[in-house]
Amino acid sequence: MKALCWYGKNDVRVATVPDPHILNPRDAIIKITTTAICGSDLHLYDGYIPTMEPGDILGHENMGEVVEVGSAVKNLRVGDRVVVPFTIACGQCFFCQKQLWSCCDNSNPNAWMAEKLYGYSPSGLFGYSHMLGGYAGGQAEYLRVPFADVGPVTIPDGIEDEKVVFLSDIFPTGYMAAENCDIEPGDTVAIWGCGPVGQFAIKSAWMLGAARVIAIDQVLERLALARREGQAETLNFDDKDIFDALTEMTGGRGPDRCIDAVGMEAHGTSPDALLDRVKAAAFLATDRPHVLRQAIHACRKGGTVSVPGVYGGVVDKLPMGAVVNKALTIKSGQTHMHRYMRPLLARIQKGEIDPSFIITHRLRLEDAPQGYEMFRYKHDNCIKVVLKPHDSVVPRPRSFSQ
Amino acid sequence: MWGRVGGDALDLACLGAALTSDDARPDRIVAAMAAVAGVTALDVLCSQQLSQRAPQSRHVESSVAINRAPADLYRFWRDFQNLPRFMPHLRSVQVDTGQRSHWVAQGPAGTTVAWDAEIIDDRPDALIAWRSLAGADVDQAGSVRFEEAPGGRGTFVRVCMEYYPPGGALGTVVATLFGEEPGQHIQEDLRRFKQLMETGETATTAGQPSARP
Prior knowledge:
The complex is a heterodimer. By secondary structure, chain A is α/β, with parallel strands linked by helices. Chain A contains 13 helices and 18 strands. In chain B, helix 1 (2-19) runs antiparallel to helix 2. The model of chain B has no long low-confidence stretch (mean pLDDT 85).
């Protein structure tokens, strides 16, 4: 089959690889009908995530059609349409039973690697480094899905792929980010980052009762989308000092709930952001937490900072004094996917939200490397790329003709 | 013990240096040196004898929390033929009689290591202890305990093993079996035991596609 493979920093290519097959009784194989490039794939593309190996297949936002099931999978049938969560969870360990699905004890075959870095290992993920399982991803024609009796959610006919594919990661991730805020009536929620997760966090903050949502970015089309689709007020950090603007907008109190939907590769030209770049380049720190610092600084006393943005290793100069003395709560985590997929599918079916609003580009799998480049550098107003591995009629964008 | 001998030598050197001091009392210092020399002789003798003995045993311990009742875990482990399912270096375990069993483990490059073992303690749902019999390739003894975790949160499984690494070529085989870092293999074995008991399978990516040759 064809698959999008990682070869190194800024180097992804489509290669011909063997087809996957069932390795364990609870596996299933799905034929990928729609998959997507995630913002967190860009951390791999930029070489920020350790324990990648050349030849790894990427892709963790997957859906498709079941073509084979293992002997222990009783709830799926060949031909079922399913969305696959990006976190792999067994359903039977202490953590799965506490609904902490992304902390599953049993799905990471390389748990010892993660234990060295994190103390204990989180769940395995599709296509996201050997430390987090080394599982082949789904930016490919076919995907092996472990614990297929627990993860994949069956999608009824009559609802197209593009409305449900983001149940695989970014819609639940934005939703959990907002839920982690513990929004109270009257609350103002400030969201750093208007990429796909930020856009879903905006929508979710309204669903969970926010009185006001303020979205922060520098990319004009993303700010426009946050205003148009998300009904958010927006701030461009190129134009304004964000702390001053948030303070002014909230009568000197600060936003009640702050969401860092940016993560480890924050942009910015402030002194701390520039120092972070130097340190990361010199391997003195791994992550650049400029947004996290700003969110902690701006958050009102007794407020909550929710972190769906991905951090991988060690951050420097985190203002713990502000956390303690302002009595802040920080909540984070890879998304506990299995908790949210069915309730959010129900919201889509009821017409409360159509997640396809973020898609800007539809590409063939063969064009995925250009998709990465376009998404990385935000060319052609790119916000979200979906890939159609089996669809030969997807047109090539005009910008790819050269 | 050889460290003690080194310490004695230092003491003697200090006392020797003290002899050259202007306000030294040579008679006292010489008496002290004689006493330390006596201790040094004893330490050297003791160190030599210890060095000639068989290699020291290695002790490894590891534990894991499993979301199952002690009885389930005991039952699975007590049937030794199940062990190769989560200890991949074991090729087979054959139970001869109720207490005795024959073990064959995989070494590097097709070699094998074999031993007979007997159960020396067996408390249903709580503990199994064993040791190898005379003539084993690897002299060893071990136990596994199954303790109910507080608050009804499954079972703590604790393994203790003591083994005597042989020298020579066999030593290399045994080092591969038990890992460079003692305890590392047993910890991975316990992780697979947990996976098998909680999920019915062990997590793997062996055999999945990639663009590597």
